[in-house]
Amino acid sequence: MRRPSSQKPSSSDSQKRSWSKEEDQKLIDYIQKHGEGCWPSLPQAAGLRRCGKSCRLRWLNYLKPDIKRGDFGEDEEDLIIRLHALLGNRWSLIAGRLPGRTDNEVKNYWNSHIRKKLIQMGHRDPNNPRHHRFNVGSVKSEPSNSVNNNIEDHKVLEPTSKPEFNLNAFPDLNLDLTLTAYCYSGDDR
DNA sequence: AATCCATCCAACCGCGGCAGG
DNA sequence: GCCTGCCGCGGTTGGATGGAT
To answer: Domain span at residue A40?
Structure first.
């Protein structure tokens, strides 16, 4: 059994509390100086009254220089829908295909926008955990720029008992997340 | 103007995986 | 093999905000 994390914040720090500009700057300065890593010891070293996990989250989701803020484009939304059909709630994997987007951002966008949209259009609740991913084997593989076309595709999806998917259904998707340059050709905001 | 309600999203929590001792 | 600690992930929460009444 897992013991209580040593990173658990003290009771005074456990409340949700927004990051101030000063805190952000301290974190940025420290990471620029020492690099990422050693999160548990970072707060003390950087003079922050936060737990390491909180610092890590703040850096990865908001302070990192390559983070892209702002609305999701149609292409991005389309890609998220298709990747979610393939991968389920693997937000980090999905976010890995969207440069500058974080898993938290993708997850929030899915829950607040896309899920609602799909349900409104008569789909089954697409927000199922990874336990029953959709079977995408029957989906046509035509590359499409249209969100609607892809949503149509999803109407034939059914939950499967096995967490399997057919990569051939998405020949244009590059799921090699580790080595290859990103191949998404969305807008350049 | 005040209150209620729904929505969004930043932040937190708990857990699993993994590495090192 | 077991224990401990760190990292990263997905789920959830709660404050802020804006629209409706």
So the answer is: 21-63
